[in-house]
Amino acid sequence: MKENRRGRLKRLILPGLIFQSVVISGGYGTGAELTEHVFPYGVKGGLLAIGVSTFLIWTLVCAISFEFARVFKTFDYRSFFQKLLGRGWVLYEGCYLVMLLLVLAVISATAGESAIVLFGASRWWGVAVMGGCIAALVLKGTAAVERFLSYWSYVLYAVYTLFLVMCFRAFHGAIAAQFDPMVQIQSGWALGGAKYAFYNLGIIPAVLFATRGAKSRKEAVLSGSLAAAIGVAPAIFLLVAMAGFYPDIMDAAVPINTVFQALHMPWLEYLFQLVLFGTLVETGTGYIKALSDRIESTKGGGAIARRRVMLTGGCILTGVLVSGFGLTSLIRQGYGTITWGFLLIYVLPITTAGVYKIIREKRAIRVYMPPK
User: Fold this and answer.
1) CATH number of the domain bearing residue 42
2) Total domains in the fold of the chain
3) What are the angstrom distances between the C-alpha of 256 and each of 38, 129, 252, 261?
4) At what angle do helices 255-263 and 266-299 cross, to 10 degrees?
5) Spatial distance between the Cα atoms of 341 and 337, rounded to a whole number of angstroms
6) CB 103 within 8 A of CB 289
7) What gap in Å lies between CA 224 and CA 66, rounded to an integer?
8) pLDDT tens track for 194-228
9) Would the pLDDT of 368 be above 50?
C-alpha cells in the first residue's frame, strides 16, 4: 500500500518537476524574463501577473494537454499534434524549432557567463561542459532524463528558498515598501501575465513523455494543476527577492547579478550560479530530447546513440551562433514574437478542439464498450 501511494505521488508530481525543469531556462533563472515581461507592471502588478494570470492559464492548458495525451496515448509532440491538428501539426514543429534555437541561444549565453563567474574560465568552457552534459543525458534516455530533471528541481527549490530568505533579511525594508497599500497596481498585468504564459506553454507538448503514468482523468488533471504550481513558484520567489531593487533592476542585463552585488554573499552567489548551470542543462536536455523522441518515433531502427549525439551537437552549435544577438535582445524580440504562434497553433486548439475530441472519444468508448 505504501509503495502504491509512493507510485501515485510520483505520477502526480513528476510531470510538474519536468515542466519546471525545462521551462526555467536561462532567462527565467537569471530574472531577465521577469524584468522584460513582468516587472513593467510594478512589483504588485507583476506578482498578480504571475500568481493569477500565468498560473491560471498554465493550470488550464497543462490539465487539458495531459488528459489529451492520456486519452489518445500521444506522448511525443508529433503524434500529439497529428491528433489535435491533423496535417497542420507541422505548424507547431516550425514554431518549436524556432523556440528551440532561441532557448539554446539563451542558455548558451548564460552558460558562458556562469563559467566566468564560477571558475573565471572562458565562456566556451561553459558552453562545452553544458553541451557535454546534455548529450550524456539525451544519450542515456528517458529514465535518466527524468531522474536528473526531477532531483535537480528539489535542489533548485532549496537554493531559491535560501536566496529568498537571505534577500528578505538584507532588504526587507525595500521589499516591504513595494507592497505598501499606497503603491498602485499598474494596469495591463493580466495581459502581461497571459503573454508570459503563452510562450512558455509551447514546451508542454515536449514534456509529455513524463505523463505516461497517469491512470485516470483525475490524475491527469491534478498532475496538470500541480505542474502549473511547481512551474510558477520559482518565478514568485525571484520576483519577491528582486522587488527591493525595482525599478533600477529593469535596466540590468543580468538582473540577478545586481542583487548579488548588493548582497555581499559570495558563497551564495557561487551556489546559485552552480544551480543555475544545472537548470541550463535541464532546459537544453528537455528541448533536445523532445526533438529526438519525435525523430525516433518515425525513423526508429539502429544508430540511435550516434543520431542523438549528432543532434545534440548540431543544436548546441546553432544555439551558440544565435546567442551572438545578446540575451536581452533574444528575450525581447524572439520570445515576444513566438508567443503569438503558440497561442494560435497550440493554446486555442487544445482548449477548444482538444476538449471536444476528449469528450467525443470518451463517449465513443462508453457506446462501443462490449458487455462483460
Assistant:
1) 1.20.1740.10
2) 1
3) 15, 22, 9, 9
4) 150
5) 7
6) no
7) 6
8) 888 887 788 898 889 889 888 899 999 999 999 99
9) no
